Amino acid sequence: MSYLGPKAIGDFADSSLVTLTGTQTLTNKTVSSLGVTGNATFDDNSKAIFGAGSDLQIYHDGLNSYIDDQGTGRIYIRASDQLRLQASDGGNYALFAANGAAQFYYANSEKLATTSTGVDVTGTVTAQALDLATNNPRIRFDDSDTSNNGEITLDNTAFRIEADEDNAVASSTIQLRVDGDTKVTVDASGNLDATGNITLDSTDAKIDLKSGATGTTGALRWMFNSTSVPYADLSLPYDTRATVGLLLRSNNGYPITIDGGNGVIFKEDSTTETMRITTSGLEVTGHVEAKGVEETVYSLGTTSGTITPNFTNGAIQKITLNGNLTFSAFTSPVAGQSITLIIDTNGTGRTLTSTMKFAGGTKTMSTTDTIDVMTVLYDGTNYLANYVTDFS
Q: What is the architecture, at CATH level 2, of domain 297-391?
């Protein structure tokens, strides 16, 4: 039924077929189907209501506009190609492509987009925390200007910080900076440059320096032990190639070499040896100048008979006699060694028997209770002796 006259819509029953032209007002009417050509106008707070329980409402309250889902279930906004949320001037808030990326904008400038592998962010990310809960999590940094890159990676065995993994830029480094200054730098050769002090604060703190694959712990160990007897230990116990010993190097060679088999060797340059400390004592090549040298007097005790003083006990030794004395040699003599022997006769009638060569011929011991002094020099073949008696 069509009606084109002035009769009001209220004169028709609900669900009647009505064709209306012009501007019409419908109040509290229910129709099964409504087709509108032109605008459907709703006053403020008048709602387009959908659902038997007024589940979905669209309206304007005079200040703001609302799409209000009041019912059960979800609200779906669907698009076959792309869904756009835009400002009134056409600027984008967000774009959603069917089976594709979701793009989010700030001031109509894209800042975040989803991809098939994650998200791409343009600009700065500010977060209170970043939790990467996955297998082998990784953060990668790519510099678009230089093609340099860096990564922070955690796998089953290691936490790694990597610089220029693709070797795109020569001489890349890893730097640790504090207060705007670089404090630690690691370069492509593995060199570490640190500004400031390195403190190892633990019991039995140590630094192991390992060269290549040889050695189980390190070629050089520097350790401080405090568990029992405090000591500092610089040692070479871990590398079978360390056959020469510990070399303390300068620009002019190796002035100090510490070798377990040959002692401590001091050199003037890379080849000229000046001094050596061995199990036998000190060997010096050249002139020795000493000031304020103090010599310990080693006591041979109270004895008699044959003695063979050992030079390693000192160059000045003292003996108190309780009988006659026989003295013809040192223990393990080395050419150039000399000993001054202080003899307390500790009685009368003592005698000295010796095959040494004495200045002025054979010498005899004091026959009184007094002090004698015997000085002996070994030249590699002969014992050359000087004997002075009666220090009383």
A: Sandwich (2.60)
